[in-house]
Each structure stands twice: as structure tokens, then as C-alpha cells.
Design brief:
Radius of gyration: 21 Å
Largest sheet: 2 strands, parallel
Structural class: mainly alpha
Number of helices: 20
Distance between the termini: 48 Å
Oligomer: single chain
Strand content: under 5%
Order of helices and strands: EEHHEHHHHHHHHHHHEHHHHHEEHH
């Protein structure tokens, strides 16, 4: 009889399946590679919301280890900072876009509530399967919501890059650098466009800022920071208004994780549908734990799926190594100080790319699922969600205010099913 965890067998060549393992040294190196792959996005997301990157990295490692345990070591995944939270967190906290977020505790309460809803969905899926999710959230709706999230963040990116003509050019250089690496890079380099492109822009800014009257990069805090120390944990505050804004993100996390698990199934040639409920539950619990101490909500990472596709190493033990490495980084104030030196202009350029990619992902969802836009129900569902999200329509409900992303999400679901009644009849 099989145990809760697999009996990992040693494999030194060829494809390495989830229940196989590399030698210990290679496992650690492979884990480090996954940390590098997730690093750019997992650090960028908390910065854009005013969170402490050290705390976010720490909780991403904890969430990854938790995911490993809950899924019985059978589902290879890294859990990093979710970009789906950015718009609603900014709306809930009134964050200006730079420096620490003064209203962070309110956002954390909402993130915990979102994680609880997500975990509950996981338990439901484990009991009755995923058919109801696919019915409630068909690809046209999922794509519409994803696009609305990306467009909702447009003003955030523009505010970050508009301080001066110089910052605008630095931001555009960042966009071009990321794009060139993503298209023309090879091997692992191509999997790290945000990290390497951002580094190139960082170097350019450091070399030219003073010549254009921009603030120079200040390394004083890096020199003063300790190598090891406790992160700056923050306790959550539960505010119903903020929770109403942030909880709808659970729908996006469900769609992300479902696609992630289906993708791993294809790569490994194994049916992993029996683990979908556990995956949702683990991700939800990981998000709750992260929110309880100052971390961002987490989600399974496509960046790490890319590394698996390139290396053909799917061993879940690699992600144990990655999680441990991330936790160690979280306990390094010097690491956090280095992150704090990244210029706002560079972050703004990365935001343009990342937010744009979020919106553009909708197109991929629609194309891969052959969504027919000749049908008015699909066209109207998407059109309505895009404008509500991009315009950030805030809808008062029972004394609380639903933000643009939440309004777009619920409008897309309700409108699609209202217009689909005739087809279903």
C-alpha cells in the first residue's frame, strides 16, 4: 500500500518525475534555480503594494513547504506572490505607490479572508470535483476577469514612471530590456526576463541618475543592514470593507491554480485531477498564513513551471529545497536592504510589463479555449468587464464599497450566465 508521501527513487538522467529524486547536491542546486526563477515576480509584487519583500519571500517559502505536505509530495509547485492582489490591495489601502504601505494591516485582514474562501473552495472541490467551477467560470469569464485586473492597474504603473522625462525613459528602457531577454534569451536566461532586464535598468540608472538630476542609488542602508535578523512582521486588522474588496480574488486564484495543475499533468503525462482540491486548499492556507504576518497572498507560479519544462525535472523534493532557501533569504535584512535600493523608475518599467502581461494573458485564455467572439454573450461579457475594471467602478453594496476588480468579476459572472440562459434552454 502506498504511503502518504511517495517513496522517491533516485534518478540521475532523463525526465525526473514527481516521485523520483536527484542526488542531494543536484536537488539543492535545482531548488536554487527555482528560487532564482520566482525571485523577480515574488519580490516585485510586494514592492508594488508597499509590503516588505523579506516577509513576502519568507512566507512564499513557508507556503511552498506547506503545499508540499498537504499535497502529499505529489504535486511539484512553487508558491510565490500573487499579482492578482495588487489592484484590490491598493484600492483597500489607498497606497500611493512608493515606500511602505501605512495601511498594510487592513490589507492583511482581507488577504486572510480571501485565503479562507479559497481553502473552503478547495475542500468543496475535494468532495465533489471541479465540474461546477468549470461551469461557473468558463474561459470567457476567466479571461475577462484577468484582463480587467491588468487594466485596473494602469494608473499605478503610470504614476510610478511619470515623475520626470528621465524616469519615463528609464522605465521604457526597462520594458525593452525585459522584452529583448524574453524573446532572444536562451535557456535559463530566457526564463528570467524580469530579473535580468530589471538588473540592466538598475545598472543604467545607477550610472546616469546624477547626470540627469535624479536621486542616486543609496547603498548606505545595505552596508548598515545585518546579514541575519527577524523580518518586520505585521499583524492583520479585519475591516469588512477591505475584506469585501479583496475576497473576490479567490476566483482568480482558483483559475490560476486549476490551469497550473492541468499544465503539470500535461508535462508529466500523469492525471493529477485528484490533487486539485488539495492544491486549492494548500494555496488557501498558505495565503492565510502569509497574511497573518505581513506577507502577500500566494499562488502557484508559472515561472517555475517554465523551469520544469526546460529542465524536465519534476521532483517535488526540489521544491522542498527551494522553500528552505527562500525562508533563509527571508531572514536576511541585508537582502531586504538591497531590494530597497531599486529605483521607482525601474519598478515602474517592470510594472508596465507585468500589468500588461496580466491583461494580455486573457487573450491566451480565449485563444486556447477557442472562445467565439461572434457570439454576443461572449462579446458583451468581456466588453462590460474590461470597462468596469479599467475605469475602476466602485459599487456600493449594503454600506460597503466593491472595487473595480470585484465589480468587473461579479458583473462578468452574472452577465454571462444571464445571457447564456437562452443557449442552455
Amino acid at each position: 500500500m502506498a504511503g502518504y508521501f511517495p517513496n522517491w527513487t533516485l534518478k540521475t538522467s532523463g525526465d525526473v518525475m514527481p516521485d523520483e529524486r536527484l542526488p542531494t547536491g543536484q536537488t539543492i542546486i535545482a531548488g536554487l534555480q527555482h528560487v532564482v526563477a520566482m525571485f523577480g515576480a515574488t519580490v516585485l509584487a510586494p514592492i508594488l503594494m508597499g509590503f516588505d519583500p523579506n516577509v513576502a519571500i519568507l512566507f512564499s517559502g513557508i507556503a511552498t513547504l506547506l503545499f508540499f505536505v498537504i499535497t502529499g509530495g505529489r504535486l511539484p509547485s512553487y508558491l510565490g506572490s500573487s499579482f492578482a492582489f495588487i489592484g484590490v490591495v491598493i484600492a483597500a489601502t489607498g497606497y500611493a505607490g512608493t515606500g511602505p504601505n501605512a495601511n498594510l494591516p487592513v490589507a492583511l485582514g482581507g488577504i486572510i479572508a480571501c485565503g479562507a474562501v479559497y481553502a473552503a473552495i478547495g475542500l468543496l472541490v475535494q468532495g465533489i470535483g471541479t465540474r461546477w467551477i468549470e461551469t461557473l467560470l468558463p474561459p470567457v469569464v476567466t479571461g475577462a476577469v484577468v484582463a480587467a485586473i491588468g487594466l485596473n492597474l494602469t494608473s499605478v504603473a503610470m504614476n510610478m514612471i511619470s515623475a520626470s522625462p528621465y524616469t519615463k525613459w528609464i522605465a521604457l528602457f526597462t520594458v525593452i530590456a525585459v522584452a529583448l531577454i524574453a524573446v532572444y534569451g536562451r535557456g535559463l536566461v530566457q526564463r528570467l526576463p524580469v530579473l535580468i532586464g530589471g538588473l540592466a535598468a538598475y545598472i543604467l540608472y545607477a550610472a546616469t541618475a546624477t547626470s540627469f538630476g535624479a536621486p542616486p542609488v543609496d547603498f548606505g542602508k545595505v552596508a548598515a543592514a545585518a546579514w541575519f535578523g527577524l523580518p518586520n512582521f505585521v499583524a492583520p486588522v479585519f475591516d469588512l470593507k477591505a475584506m469585501a474588496l479583496i475576497v473576490p480574488v479567490a476566483i482568480i486564484l482558483v483559475a490560476e491554480n486549476l490551469g497550473h495543475i492541468k499544465g503539470i499533468s500535461v508535462m508529466t503525462g500523469r492525471n493529477l485531477d485528484g490533487l486539485i482540491g488539495r492544491g486549492f486548499f494548500a494555496d488557501g492556507i498558505g495565503t492565510m498564513i502569509a497574511g497573518s504576518g505581513g506577507g502577500t497572498g500566494v499562488t502557484t507560479y508559472a515561472e517555475n513551471m517554465g523551469v520544469m519544462a526546460v529542465t524536465r525535472v519534476y521532483s517535488t523534493l526540489v521544491f522542498v529545497a527551494a522553500g528552505v532557501i527562500a525562508i533563509l533569504l527571508g531572514f536576511s535584512p541585508k537582502f531586504g536592504a538591497v531590494i530597497g535600493t531599486i529605483p521607482v523608475a525601474v519598478l515602474g518599467g517592470l510594472a508596465v510589463v507585468v500589468f500588461g502581461l496580466i491583461a494580455a494573458t486573457a487573450g491566451r485564455i480565449w485563444v486556447e479555449n477557442k472562445v467565439d467572439f461572434a457570439q454576443p454573450k461572449n462579446l458583451l461579457t468581456v466588453a462590460t468587464a474590461l470597462i468596469l475594471g479599467a475605469g475602476d467602478l466602485k459599487l456600493p453594496i449594503f454600506g460597503y464599497e466593491l472595487g473595480g476588480i470585484g465589480t468587473a468579476t461579479f458583473a462578468a459572472i452574472a452577465l454571462y450566465h444571464l445571457l447564456n440562459r437562452r443557449a442552455a434552454a
